[in-house]
Specification:
The complex is a heterodimer of chains A (about 450) and B (about 475).
Chain A lengths: L21 H5 L12 H6 L6 H12 L8 H8 L6 H4 L7 H16 L3 H10 L2 H18 E4 L4 E4 L3 H5 L10 E2 L6 H4 L3 E2 L6 E6 L1 H7 L1 H13 L2 E4 L9 H4 L4 H17 L4 E4 L2 H14 L6 H9 L2 E3 H8 L11 E6 L2 H6 L4 H8 L4 E3 L15 H4 L1 H18 L3 E4 L2 H14 L4 E4 H13 L8
Parallel strand pairs in A: 5-6, 5-7, 7-8, 9-10, 9-11, 11-12
Antiparallel strand pairs in A: 1-2, 2-3, 4-6
Helix pairs in contact in A: 3-6, 11-12, 12-23, 15-16, 21-22
Chain B lengths: L3 H11 L4 E2 L2 H5 L16 E3 L4 H14 L3 E4 L16 E4 L6 E5 L4 E4 L5 H8 L4 E2 L12 H7 L6 H4 L6 E8 L4 E5 L11 H5 L7 E9 L1 E2 L3 E9 L2 H13 L6 E6 H11 L9 E9 L2 H17 L3 E4 L3 H12 L1 H7 L3 E4 L9 H14 L3 E7 L4 E8 L4 H20 L18 H20 L17
Parallel strand pairs in B: 2-4, 3-4
Antiparallel strand pairs in B: 1-2, 5-6, 6-10, 7-11, 8-9, 8-10, 12-14, 12-15, 13-14, 13-17, 16-18, 17-18
The chains are: A alpha/beta (about 450), B alpha+beta (about 475).
Chain lengths: ~450, ~475
C-alpha cells in the first residue's frame, strides 16, 4: 500500500501510516454538531466543508472507494483551516486535526509535494538562504506595493493589483510590511536583566521576526520590566506548522529537531511564545511527531511541559507587575484558534488587558470564531477566507472598540486586511504591545496612582 | 440512471454551483446522524434557493422517475435522509432566509434551511422565543424539524414542532405549489393540511416556506436536581409533580448507568450510589408563581424520599444542565456505535419502562443507559455496541425489538420524536395495524403515486 509507511523505520505515528487514523474516525457519530461552528461550512453550506463530511470521505479513502491523491479528495482536504473549532463542539472528542493532517501527509507520501511547495519548504530548511530572501523582499516590496505609514501596512500597486486581484491582491488589500531588519537581527542573543528571577528563551516564529518585529521588541520590554532574562537564540527557525499542514512531515520533523537544539543551547528554563501556532507546536505537535525518536522524543516531551504563551507565563508562572502607564483605548480581543483551541489560552490575555490603566475592555460576540486566516488558507481560498473574516469584522464593529487585539501574528495579518475592508479603522495590535506600551508610559511620567 | 442531460438541466434550474456531482461531495450526503444504517451515495445533490426551482426539479424528477430526498442538516436519528434508491438529494442548506419576523402577530416566516437557533436569535430582541428545542437546535433546520416534527427538552410544557406551525408552503410531487394556514390563530379553511405535512418525513411533499408561531419568552425560572435511591421514587415524583398541578418546562430523568457514565466522563460531582436522577426546571412570567411552583416540586421530591439540590445562580443552573448535556456524549465515548432509541410511554408507566429497559439490557448482555424526557414519557434507551461485531449487533437488534414491544404493551408509541424513517419502518404495523398501513399507503399514493418523494421511508413502497 502506497499510503502506508515502509515498515521498520520506527516512525509509527498516524502521520506515517494512514491505517492508524481508523481509531480516530470510529469516534465520529455523524451527529453534525461540527456544523454549528465550522467557518468553512457556515460559508459554503456544503457537507464536504465540515468535519463530519470530511470524515466520511476519509472513511471512503480507507475502504478503497476513493483514492487519497484523487484531485477532488486533495482539494477537499485543503478546504479546511485546521482551526479546530469543530473539536470544541464535538461530543465524542474526535481529534479532527490529526485526521486532516494524517490524510494530507498520506497525499504527500503517495504523490510527493507540489514542486512549488517543495521549493518553498526546502528554503525553510536552509535558514540563511530563507533569511536573505526575506531581506531582499523587504527591499523590493516597494516596487509592487504602496506604503500606508499610518496603518503600518502596504497595499498592492497597479499593475500588480490587476494581476493579483483574483487572489485577493487587489488595491484594497492591506498587508504588513516586510521588515528591513528582522527582529532577531535587532536584539542581542541574550538580554540579561539584573536580579533576574528566571531565564526564558523567546521562540519568535517567522511572523514576528519578519513582519511584526515591534511585537518582538514589546515582548523583550515586558520581560525586562518583570525581571526575566531572555534569550533569543539565533539558531531558531520556522516552527514548521505551516509545512506540517501541507503534509510535509519530513520537513517539520527536521525543523523541530533543529529548534530543540537551539533552545537547549540557550540554557533557558522555559520557552515563551507570542504566537499560538508556534506555542502549539512546542506544546503538542513536536512531541507527537517525534514520539518514536529515541533522542528527540524525550526532549520534545520535556519542552512541551515548559512552553507557555507569554500571557500564561506572566500570569501563571510568574506574577507580572501591574503596569501603571495610562493607555487610553477601547479594546476588544480576538481569540486566535491555535492559542485558544490548541494552547487553551483565553482568559490570560483578557486578564492582562483589563489590568492596563485606561483600557476599557469590550467583549465581541463569538470572540473565538475563526478569523479565516488559516495560514496559507487565505492564499488558496481567498473568497471563503474573506467571507469568514467579514463576519468577524461585523462582530468587531459591534463592540465600538478602537483597537482589536489578539495573540497571534497570523490573525493580525488577516485582521489588518479585513478590518481595512469592512471595519472602522480600528487599530490591530498584539495584546502584549499594549502591556509594553503601558510600561513605557509609566516611565515617561504619565503613571496613574497605584490602586 | 442520471445522465448528463439531466445534470445539465438541473444546472440550468439552480445554477452550476448549486449542483454537486463529484464523488467526494456525493459521499458526504450518503448518511445522516443515525447509527447502524447503510450508506447510500446519491446520483446528484441539488441546492435550490427558491420555491420555483424546487417545482422545476420536481417536474424533472417526475418526468424521469427519479427519487428526491429533501434534506435539511441531516441530523435526524431515523435514517430519514439517506438516499436509499439513488436519485437526487435536495439540500435546503442554502435556502435559508428568515423572510419576516412579525412580532405583533407573534409569527415568523422562514425558508426551510434556516437553522432553529438562528430563528431564536432573530426573535430574541423582541422578547420572543420559538420553543421547540431538539438537541440539535444549533445545527438542525426548520424544514427538517417540521418534516420530522421534532420534540426536545421543553415538550412537556411547550409542546413540539407541530404546535408551532401555523402555515406552510409545500411543493407537491406533481409540481404544484400549495399554501395553507397563515398568520391567523384561527383557521379552519379546508383540511388541516399543516398537520398532514408536519412529521411526514418528506414523503408527501417538500416544505418550501414555514410560518411559525412565536411566544413571549419566560422571564423567570428555577432549576433543581433530585436524586433517588429507588427508581420507583423517581417515577412517583414525576407523576406527583403533575398531580400537584405544576407543569415544569423540563422534567428529565437519568438512570444509574447514565449517571455513572456521566460522572466518569464529565466529573460534575454526581453521586454514583443513586438509582435515578431528575432534572427539573419551572419557568414563567411572574417570579412569585415560579417560586411557588418550585416549592411545590420540592415538596413532592421530599415526599418521595428524594434528595433535592436547588440551583441558586445561573452558574449553578449551568452546572446542573452540564450533567444532562453530557449524557449522550458520555455514553457515546464508551463504544463506537450508539443506538439511540426514543420509545415513549404514558407518563405513569415511566418507572415500568425504565425497569423493563434494564431487564432487556441484562437479558441480551448489552451496555445500555437510559435517560430522557420523563415528563412526557419520552425515553432514550441508549445501547452501546460496535457495528463491526456482528454477533453483538444481532443482540442489539433483538433488544430493540423487545424495547418497542414493551413500549407498545404499556400503551406507548414506537417513536416520540425521532420519526419512523428507515429505522422503525418494520415495526410500523405493530402499532397502527394493517388498516393503518393501508391508510398510510392511500394518503401516500394520493399525493405521490410514483413514490418519488423520499422512497423507502415511513411508508413501505408498494410491491410492484
Amino acid at each position: 500500500m502506497s499510503v502506508t509507511a515502509e515498515k521498520g523505520k520506527g516512525t509509527g505515528t498516524l502521520y506515517d501510516d494512514l491505517e492508524l487514523v481508523r481509531n480516530e474516525l470510529a469516534k465520529c457519530m455523524k451527529c453534525g454538531n461540527c456544523m454549528a461552528v465550522c467557518p468553512v461550512y457556515l460559508t459554503d453550506k456544503a457537507e464536504a466543508g465540515v468535519a463530519r463530511g470530511k470524515i466520511a470521505v476519509a472513511e471512503a479513502v480507507l475502504s478503497g472507494e476513493l483514492d487519497v491523491d484523487d484531485p477532488e479528495v486533495v482539494e477537499m482536504l485543503f478546504n479546511c483551516l485546521v482551526c479546530k473549532s469543530c473539536m470544541q463542539n464535538c461530543p465524542t472528542k474526535v481529534n479532527f486535526d490529526r485526521i486532516m493532517l494524517a490524510l494530507r501527509a498520506a497525499v504527500v507520501r503517495k504523490k510527493g509535494l507540489h514542486p512549488l511547495k517543495d521549493m518553498i519548504f526546502g528554503l525553510l530548511k536552509r535558514p540563511k538562504l530563507f533569511d536573505a530572501g526575506m531581506k531582499v523582499g523587504a527591499v523590493l516590496q516597494g516596487l509592487a506595493f504602496r506604503d500606508d505609514p499610518d496603518k503600518k501596512a502596504i497595499s498592492p500597486r497597479s499593475p500588480f493589483a490587476f494581476v493579483g486581484r483574483s487572489y485577493g491582491f487587489d488595491r484594497d488589500r492591506s498587508l504588513p510590511e516586510l521588515a528591513a531588519t528582522p527582529f532577531r537581527d535587532r536584539v542581542p542573543e541574550v538580554v540579561n536583566v539584573k536580579g533576574a528571577q528566571t531565564k526564558v528563551a523567546f521562540f519568535t516564529g517567522c511572523s514576528v521576526n519578519y513582519f511584526y518585529p515591534s511585537v518582538g521588541e514589546d515582548v523583550v520590554t515586558v520581560f525586562k520590566e518583570n525581571k526575566v532574562s531572555v534569550a533569543v537564540p539565533k539558531g531558531q527557525q520556522c516552527c514548521g506548522i505551516a509545512v506540517f499542514v501541507h503534509g510535509d512531515v519530513t520537513t517539520v520533523r527536521e525543523l523541530a529537531r533543529k529548534n530543540i537544539d537551539a533552545m537547549e543551547k540557550s540554557g533557558a528554563e522555559y520557552i515563551v511564545t507570542a504566537c499560538g501556532s508556534c506555542g502549539g507546536a512546542w506544546q503538542h505537535e513536536y512531541k507527537e511527531l517525534l514520539s518514536e525518536d529515541p533522542v528527540y522524543g524525550p526532549k520534545a516531551e520535556y519542552w512541551s511541559g515548559r512552553t507557555y504563551d507569554i500571557s500564561t507565563f506572566l500570569t501563571k508562572v510568574i506574577s507580572y507587575r501591574f503596569p501603571r502607564g495610562k493607555v487610553d483605548a477601547v479594546v476588544t480581543y480576538h481569540d486566535s484558534c491555535h492559542l485558544k483551541k490548541t494552547m487553551k489560552v483565553s482568559q490570560e490575555p483578557r486578564e492582562i488587558l483589563k489590568s492596563i490603566p485606561g483600557v476599557t475592555f469590550k467583549e465581541m460576540a463569538k470572540p473565538d470564531a475563526c478569523c479565516g486566516s488559516g495560514g496559507s488558507y487565505l492564499l488558496t481560498h481567498y473568497d471563503t477566507s474573506k467571507t469568514i473574516a467579514q463576519r468577524k469584522v461585523a462582530d468587531i464593529n459591534q463592540t465600538k472598540a478602537d483597537q482589536v487585539t489578539t495573540g497571534c501574528p497570523a490573525c493580525m495579518m488577516q485582521l489588518l486586511d479585513h478590518v481595512g475592508r469592512f471595519g472602522k479603522d480600528q487599530k490591530i495590535a498584539h495584546y502584549v504591545s499594549l502591556l509594553a506600551e503601558s510600561y513605557r508610559r509609566e516611565k515617561k511620567g504619565s503613571a496613574t496612582h497605584v490602586r | 440512471m442520471i445522465d448528463k442531460t439531466i445534470i445539465q438541466e438541473l444546472e440550468r434550474i439552480v445554477g452550476e454551483k448549486n449542483v454537486l456531482t463529484r464523488k467526494v461531495d456525493l459521499v458526504t450526503y450518503s448518511y445522516d446522524a443515525t447509527a447502524d444504517m447503510p450508506k447510500h451515495i446519491p446520483d446528484v445533490v441539488v441546492m435550490p434557493t427558491a420555491t420555483e426551482e424546487v417545482q422545476r426539479i420536481v417536474n424533472l424528477a417526475q418526468e424521469k422517475r427519479l427519487a428526491i430526498y429533501p434534506r435539511g442538516a441531516g441530523t435526524n436519528l431515523s435514517g430519514g435522509t439517506i438516499p436509499l434508491k439513488k436519485g437526487i438529494v435536495m439540500s435546503f442548506q442554502r435556502m435559508n432566509k428568515i423572510l419576516e419576523v412579525d412580532a405583533d402577530n407573534l409569527t415568523a416566516t422562514v425558508q426551510p434551511g434556516v437553522v432553529i437557533q438562528d430563528l431564536n436569535n432573530a426573535v430574541a430582541p423582541h422578547g420572543l422565543i420559538y420553543p421547540p428545542d431538539p438537541g440539535t437546535v444549533t445545527t438542525a433546520t426548520m424544514g427538517g424539524s417540521v418534516a420530522e416534527n421534532s420534540g426536545g427538552l421543553r415538550g412537556l410544557k411547550y409542546g413540539v414542532t407541530k404546535h408551532y406551525v401555523m402555515g406552510l408552503e409545500v411543493v407537491l410531487a406533481n409540481g404544484d405549489k400549495v399554501r395553507f394556514g397563515g398568520k391567523t390563530v384561527k383557521n379552519v379553511t379546508a383540511y388541516d393540511f399543516a398537520n398532514l405535512f408536519v412529521g411526514s418525513e418528506g414523503t408527501l411533499g417538500i416544505v418550501t416556506e414555514i410560518t411559525a408561531k412565536l411566544i413571549p419568552g419566560p422571564k423567570y425560572r428555577r432549576s433543581m436536581m433530585a436524586l433517588f435511591k429507588k427508581l420507583e421514587d423517581a417515577g412517583n415524583t414525576v407523576t406527583g409533580i403533575i398531580k400537584s398541578q405544576v407543569i415544569p418546562a423540563t422534567l428529565e430523568i437519568m438512570d444509574r448507568k447514565t449517571i455513572e457514565t456521566v460522572e466518569n466522563y464529565a466529573k460534575v460531582g454526581l453521586p454514583t450510589d443513586v438509582e435515578a436522577l431528575l432534572l427539573i426546571e419551572v419557568d414563567g412570567m411572574a417570579e412569585e408563581v415560579v417560586e411557588r411552583e418550585a416549592q411545590a416540586v420540592a415538596k413532592v421530591v421530599k415526599e418521595n424520599s428524594g434528595d433535592l439540590k436547588l440551583a441558586a445562580s445561573d452558574a449553578e443552573r449551568d452546572q446542573l444542565w452540564a450533567a444532562r448535556r453530557a449524557a449522550l456524549p458520555a455514553l457515546a465515548q464508551l463504544s463506537p456505535t450508539v443506538v439511540l432509541e426514543d420509545a415513549t410511554v404514558p407518563r405513569t408507566r415511566i418507572t415500568d419502562m425504565l425497569v423493563a429497559c434494564q431487564k432487556i439490557a441484562e437479558k441480551y448482555n448489552l451496555k445500555m443507559g437510559t435517560f430522557g424526557h420523563a415528563g412526557d414519557g419520552n425515553l432514550h434507551p441508549t445501547i452501546l455496541a460496535d457495528a463491526n461485531n456482528k454477533e453483538e449487533m444481532e443482540r442489539v437488534h433483538k433488544a430493540v425489538d423487545d424495547i418497542f414491544a414493551t413500549a407498545l404493551s404499556f400503551g406507548g408509541t414506537l417513536t416520540g420524536e425521532h420519526g419512523i424513517g428507515i429505522a422503525k419502518m418494520r415495526y410500523l404495523g405493530d402499532e397502527i395495524g394493517q388498516s393503518g398501513l393501508r391508510m398510510m399507503r392511500s394518503v401516500k399514493e394520493a399525493l405521490d403515486p410514483n413514490y418519488i418523494l423520499n422512497p423507502g421511508k415511513m411508508v413501505p413502497v408498494k410491491e410492484a
